[in-house]
Amino acid sequence: ERLKMTFDARAEKSTNMMSARLLRLMATKRTNLCVAGDLRSSAAVLRLADAVGPYICVFKTHVDALDDFSGQFGPQLCEIAKTHNFLIMEDRKFGDIGNTVSLQYGAGNFSVAAWADLVTVHALPGPGIIDGLVSCLETHRAHLKDRACFIVAEMSCKDALTTASYRSEAMKLAETRVDFVAGVVSQSASGIPSPGLIQLTPGVRAGVNGTPQSDSDGLGQQYNSPRHVVLERGADVAVVGRGVTEAPDSAEAAKFYRDLLWEAYLERVSE
Ligand code: 5FU
Fold first, then answer.
1. Where is the signal peptide, in residue numbers (predicted)?
2. Distance (Å, whole) CA 65 – CA 62
3. How far is the CA of 156 from the centre of ligand 1 (A)?
4. d(CA 213, CA 208)
């Protein structure tokens, strides 16, 4: 069964080069933590990436929330990723027709395809959205082998419209396009069709130093503990944003989350 398999064993079953690469990275580096660097200045995001780098498998960005994005951001983040051995995910949540996402992925100010190993996409437009992203890479004859996407199958926020039937259609889309789909963004493991697909789960925060675990942020986000998302909800990679960025020491916090998440993973695959 998928959840009982080790990341190494699942990499063997993987049909996508990027999911295999990420699963092996997680197994080697012994981390299933993704930090969401949702800060407003490029320098602050780069500083955060460098500080948490040793403890993470993926660094997740929202570059359209930066006040001062410039063309140097991507290459600088790639340098840091190389130093600390993590992948970069731009959480763009593409959601348009193939032609439009192809433009948004490869062009514009952000040129996401040039620096982000992974991107997120909504399932809403159907298979055409995957075709759009792939055609962008084909047109530029670049990165065809070192790029992949995660399909947002289910969102963490309260009253999200990602119903059970939407979720199951999104899983089908993931299954039919494993060539470019490395995984799914989801709050549970049910229906994930292949052991090679990676489940990324946001909405993770722990009580630190005796403070109680908060279960929301006042704007609809819903939080679960690191242990709960890995053991009860099947998270392979857990996303922690403000749990790290609002901590007094982000490296310490990343280490704290990494330890809790990895311990939960070991417990899940043991026996
Ligand atoms: F697809 C999703 C989702 O369903 N929930 C999310 O929270 C993505 N996210 C992202 O994870 C969101 O855009 C933030 O970047 C991050 C969670 O940040 P937090 O500070 O840990 O709440």
1. none
2. 6
3. 7
4. 8
CA quadruple 196, 198, 253, 257: dihedral sign: negative
Look up residue 186 and give its two tokens: 């989801």
ipTM for the complex shown = 0.99
Which pLDDT tens digit goes with each residue over 156-186? Answer: 999 999 999 999 999 999 999 999 999 999 9
8 Å CB contact between 112 and 92: yes
Measured from the CB, is residue 242 less than 6 Å from ligand 1? yes
Could you tell me the pTM of the whole model? 0.98
199 is an annotated ligand-binding site residue? no
In a mutational test of the pocket of ligand 1, which residue from 59, 155, 156, 222 has the highest number of ligand atoms less than 8 Å from its CB?
Answer: 156
User: Is 191 in a helix, a strand, or coil?
Assistant: coil
- Separation between Cα atoms, residue 268 and residue 271, nearest integer Å: 9
Q: Does ligand 1 lie within 6 Å of residue 226's CB atom?
A: no
